[in-house]
Amino acid sequence: VMQCSASLDVLFLLDGSYSIGKGSFERSKHFADKLCDALDIHPDRVRVGMIQFSSSPHLEFPLDSYLTKQEVKERIKRTVFRGGSTETGQALKYILHKGFPGGRNSSVPEVLIIISDGKSQGSTAMPAMQVKERHITVFAVGIKFPRWEELQVLASEPPERHLLFAGDADDAANGLYSTLSDPVCTATAPGCRVESHPCERRTLETVKELAGSYVCWKGSKQPNAVQASLCPFTRWKRVLIKHPSRCFRTVCPDPCDSQPCQNGGTCVPEGLDRYHCLCLLGYGGDTHCAAKLSLGCSVDVLFLLDSSAGVTLEGFLRSKAFLKRFLQAMVGQDSPMSLGVAQYDDNVKVPIELGQHKDTLGLMKSIDALNFSGGRTLTGRALQYIAQHGFRSTPVFADVQEDLPRVVVLLSDSKSQDSVAEAAKYAKDQNIFLIGIGSSFMRAELTMVTGNPQQTIVYSDPQDLFNRMPELQRKICSVGNPEGCQAQSLDLAFAVDASSGAGLQNFLRLRRFVRSSCLHFILSRDVTQIALVTYGSTAHTAFALDTHTSTSALLQAIEQVPFLGHSASAGSALQHVLSDVMTVQKGARPGVNKVVVLLSSGGGMQGAAAPAQQLRHNGILVFVVVIGDTERDVLLRVAGSPNYLVHISSYEELQYYQGLIIERICEEARSPVNLCKPNPCMNQGVCILGPGSYHCKCHGWEGPHCETRVLRGDSPRSPALPAPSHVQWSPRALQHFSRAPQHRRQM
C-alpha cells in the first residue's frame, strides 16, 4: 500500500558490532528487508546499497549492483555478521569521504538509514552534523535497547520524524514512508493522511542505587584504635526507561471498517480498497460469508435437544450453539424446509413448533430463549412423545403432507435412563427418519436409536462437532433427496427369506432393513422402481415394480408383508424374480439397469446357482446377502463374484453393511445398459439392437413388444417392425409401451 516511488538513493548503514550481537543483527536485516517493501526499487527510481560497520566500515553492496526489489532483498538476507567495536563516527566519515557508493552524485535525494543501538565508542556529533549539512536525510533506527540520546544526535530534524524502532518493522516502515511522502515521494494514496500520536521510546539503562548501610570499621584519632560505623552500600542495576515522544504515521481508511464479512467471518484487508473474508465452516457461499450449504430439500425436521442433568449446562449450551450455527448456515428465506425444536429431560417440551418461524431472526431468538432444565435423561420417552405429537402441524398444502419426509435429529451426550429400542422402533413405524448426534461414547446408543450407523454422527471434541455440519446437511437431505442412486434409473427387487429357517424375529429384522434401504432411493416411474418378493418353499410377490410410486405407500406395504414359514428355497425365489418380476408385463423398463438383492438366512441355497446365472445372462445383477453359517463356495456360485456377496455372522450386524450394499447397487445403476437384456419382447419375440435403439422381431404377434396376437384371417405383418416402431432408449420414452393382457387362444 505504502510505496515510495521517486528518484531516490537509499543507503543502509548496519551496526555489526559485538554490542549488537548476532541475534539483533538478524533483526536489523529483517527490518531492512521490510523497508524495501515500502520502496519502489528500480534503476530509474529507488536504488539501494548497504554498508556494515563495526571496528571499520565494510561495503556490502553499492547502489548500482542490484536494481530489482527481489535482488536487493536476497542480497540483504546473505549479509553476514562481522563483529567488532562500535565505531559509528568512522562509518560516517567513510560516507563523507566516499559518498554513496554507486549513487547518482547528489543529483537525486539521498537517504541514509542508520540501524544501531547508539552505543558508539567514539564521538558522532561532528560527522553526523557534516553528513546532514550535505543535505543527506538521516534516519536513525534503534535496535535492541538503544541509547536514544545518541540516535537523536544522528537523526535529521525534527528528530521525532526521523527516529524509528526496528523492533516493530511494520510501524517503522510506515514512519519512514510518512516522513518521505512529502516532498520526496509521491503524494499519499487517496483517503490517506499523515497523523501524529503520542508514543514512547524504551531502553535499558544501568543506574546506581542505595542498597542499604552496613557496619564498617573506621580509623580513630587514638593510636592503635578503630571504631565501628555505618557505611552506605550501593549497587548497579538495569532499569527500563521510557522516553515520551511523538510519532508520525500514515493512516489510511481500512476496507474492513464497515465489517463486510457476515456470519462471524473475519475480514482481512488487501490494500486500501480490497479485502477478503475468512469464513466459518458452513459459510462462504459468496465473498461476504453467506451461507454456503443449504437445506434445499423439502423435509420436516424436528431437533430434539437433551436438556438433562447428565448432559450438563455446558453440553446443553454447546448443542444450542451448534444448532444456531447450523440453522444460520442452512436456512434461508426461500428454504422449503419446515423445522421445529424440542427439548427433554423427565418431560418433553416443544418450545418451537414445526413451521412456527418463517424468518431466521425470529428462529434464532427463540433458540436463545431455550433454558437448561437438568432432570433425568429419558430419551426413550422423548422419542415416543415426539413420534406421537411432534409432527401434528398441518402444512400449507395438504396434498403434500403424506409424502413430505419427517426427520428427527437427536442431540444427546448422556446415556438414557430408560429403554430407547421400542420408542425408536415406534418412531420408525410412523415413517420418521432418525439421525443421532453425540460424542464418541454415545455411538452404541445412538446407533440403536437410528437403527443404522450411517444415520449416526459422532464427534471427538467440541470443535469437531461444528465440523460435522456438512455431514448433517447431507444426512437430512438424503431423506427427501437420497444419497443413494440420485437420479439414476434403476429397477430394484428385494427377495427376502421368510422361511422357518430364518424365524419370525429375524424376518422382521430383514423387513426393517428393506424398509430403511428404500429411503435411499427416489421412487418414481422415471427413476427407481422397487419390487418385493418373499419366499419360503415357494415365492410370492408382495408388490411389483410398478405397484407403488410414492415412498409412504411403499413403506406401508413393506410393513404389511407377512411371515411365511416352511423350508427355504432361494432358487425358487430367484426363478420367480426372473420369470414374474423383471418382465415388461410386470413393469420392468427396457434400457434400465436391474438389480436383485437376495436376503437369506443361508438355507435353501443349493438350487439357487442356476437361476442366478440365468438372471446375470439376462443382464440382471444378483447381490447376495447371507446371515449365518453357510459354505462360502455355495454362496459364491450364486453371487457369481465376491464383489456381489456379503456374508454376515449375525442379524445384529446387518445394519452396519447397509451403506456398502447401497453403494454397490448404485455402482450397477451407473453402468452401461444393454437394451435387449432382459429381453423386452414378449411371446418369444427376438430383440434386435440398433444404434441407441432396439426393435422386436415377432412371430404370430405384433406391436412394439409383440404384445398383440395376429388374429386368424388377418394378413400377418412383416416380422421386422417398420422404422416408426423402433423404440428409442430413454427412461421417459420407454414408459409408453403397452401392458395389454394377452389374448387366449380361441378353441
Describe the structure concisely for a colleague:
One of its GO terms (cellular component) is basement membrane. The protein is α/β, with parallel strands linked by helices and 747 residues long.
Main features:
747 residues, alpha/beta, Rossmann fold, 4 domains, 6-stranded mixed β-sheet, 27 strands
Describe this structure in words.
InterPro entries: ECM_Assembly_Org, EGF, EGF-like_Ca-bd_dom, VWF_A, vWFA_dom_sf. It is found in: Secreted. Pfam families: EGF, VWA. Residues 9-180, 300-476, 491-665 form the VWFA domain. With 747 residues, the protein is of the alpha/beta class. The protein has 20 helices and 27 strands. The strands form seven sheets. A six-stranded mixed sheet has the order 3-2-1-4-5-6, with helices on both faces. A hairpin with a 6-residue loop joins strand 7 (193-219) and strand 8. The model is unreliable at 394-402 and 714-747 (pLDDT under 50).
